[in-house]
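tool_call predict_complex ligand=zinc ion
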Amino acid sequence: MTVAPLTVTNAVLDGERIGLRCVDGTIAELGLGVEARPGDETIDANGAPLVAPLVNGHAHAAMTLFRGYGGDLPLMRWLEEKIWPVEAKLDAEDVYWGARLACAEMIRSGTTRFWDMYFHVAQTARAVDDAGLRAHAGEPMFDIDGESARMQEKVLHSLEELSGSGPNVSASLTPHSIYAVSEGLLRWTAELAAERELPVHIHLSETEQEVADCLSEHGLRPAAYLDELGLLGERTVLAHGVWLDEAELELIAERDCTVVANPVANMKLAIGGVLPYPAARKAGVRVGLGTDGAGSNDSLDLLSDLKVFALSQRHAGPTRR
Ligand SMILES: [Zn+2]
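tool_result ok
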């Protein structure tokens, strides 16, 4: 598909009104006196600031279909009683249209790339391509039913499907969490990620219960447990991190992982806290921001998460600093 060059005029950068011209998806000209040429698509920014696009570090795009569903429930009851039963009924076409809607919402609020974890991942990839966005996407892994072999097959199949996607979609491995994935399947994930140099994107330390269960089952806190399984590395993205302690944050920084805060989803599901950003920063952890799915946020507007993130850190007070 050939796309006409795009020229944006009247945008503000460093206090000056400038123009920007894109050709074939690349910025070809930027600065004073950039003008549209015949045949260009044009946008008059009318004095709006020119800023870098946003990256949504943790999402479940197709969950736009569940916006508002199961409100006022805490995380585990929300998942077990509301979300997992309806997700079991989704088909590929549902996921495509849910993800298309998510892409439109993200474009509208300045996001051009997102990290996603959702069923029928090839449909999310198709929606991303059709919308002209970029994403790192993976098929969520669960084996609480004990069926790790079936899950491994499903993941390998999804990687094959994603290898046929365009350059806008990158594959990642997405074990749901340490409470929904067995130790064996997590070890398999670590080996596959190392072998194929794939990112790993997982929910971690979202609830206090998850920490308590990990300590009683494995004698380790969640980040130390993942490290023992070989899952902490520079390509690892940890979503939430609400209950990470200082030692875990230091370990995560040492392993060069990224932690993604999801403040709105944490508040909506009454998690009882948000990522302890000052401690994460002190430890040198790379921190990103995510919306989580629209089911646990009601919005995919990352800028509203940014506002809530700043407010939540102030609200937490000096004990969390
Ligand atoms: Zn999530």
